[in-house]
Amino acid sequence: MAATDYPVGHPLAVKLWSRKLAREALKATMAYKFMGESSNFLIQVFDETRKSAGDRIRIPLRMQFTSRGVTENEQLEGNEDTLTTHSDDLLINELNNAARVKTRIDAQRVPFSVREEARLGIQDWYSDRIDTAAANALTGNTAVTDTIYTGFNATTAPTSATGNRRIIYADEASTTEGSLSASQTFQLTMLDTAVQIAKTSTPKIRPIKVGSQEYYVVFLHPNQVRSLRTATNTGSWLDIQKQAMAGGEIEENPIFTGALGVYNGIVLHEWVRLPKAPANANTRRAVFCGAQAAAWAYGKNTGEEPNYVEDTFDYGREFGVSVQTILGCKKLVFNSIDFSTIVITTWAADL
């Protein structure tokens, strides 16, 4: 009697394999923790290109009304406010990769599963590519010009205009990232400066609401975290950590998962993929974010979980696994001003 068999490449096996791979990839990715479809998320997901044809989404922004208004015995007609709107475009494109391995004698020769290692390799590659694109976009890493590493949208340098600047240097006096030196490391006071800019610039950087509270998020490279820990007295660092999970409203919120702590209404996270400044290899760019710091989109038949496809070749003697998706991401910029990000560049040389 023939036995029921589910070999590599069987439709049911592919589906289960794909789900496992997708779940693991999502867990390994920082950017996905901060994504959602509402305007309250750090990375807002727009779904227009998942519902209809097209490779571009035009994202509008309405500025706040600024007129005085009128009162008794004053004419309203002729003193109306006018709409002021700006827009930013988000492009999407294909992101694909695959691994192919032999499954017969080669698999026999090694003490591990070549199929499993191929799966893990694709998973690691996809997680890295998602986070690399998000980090390059948020920090405005113009040193990277290949858009496959930037979410298929060109990066733009942080806004430096007076009154709407979106970049802070380590000593608050330097005018270029290239001039930073070994004494100019990350300090907590830089976060205070970022909060002040967020609250007083035009447009203001809107915090993320968590229950009845509001928070900003800052991502720090591990080199900057080390500077912060060694430069801050022990009591201050412990106070930051104690606030990481304080309060019932925030315990289940993803912006606190894995956080280093909280300082001045800012949730601190460590992110290894933050890039160096283009002009100084001994620096790192931390990035302070509010709501709608970046936009994200997918194509039709894709989404958070990409398509994973298995295949066999040469009469089943070789095996392949691929990841396939259509996506795009971009730091939001309206009227030539970074909408919800502030880059903090400090000395952060590798050990």
Describe the model.
This protein folds into two domains: 11-62 and 81-143 and 295-331; 158-293 and 334-347, capsid protein of prophage fold (2-Layer Sandwich). 33% of the residues are buried. The protein contains seven helices and 17 strands. Residues 1-6 have low confidence and may be disordered. By secondary structure, it is an alpha+beta fold. 24% of the residues lie in helices and 27% in strands. A hairpin with a 4-residue loop joins β13 and β14 (318-331).
Summarize the structure.
With 351 residues, the chain is of the alpha+beta class.
Q: What is the percent of helical residues?
A: 10-25%
Number of strands: 17
Number of spatially distinct domains: 2
What's the average pLDDT?
83
Number of distinct helices: 7
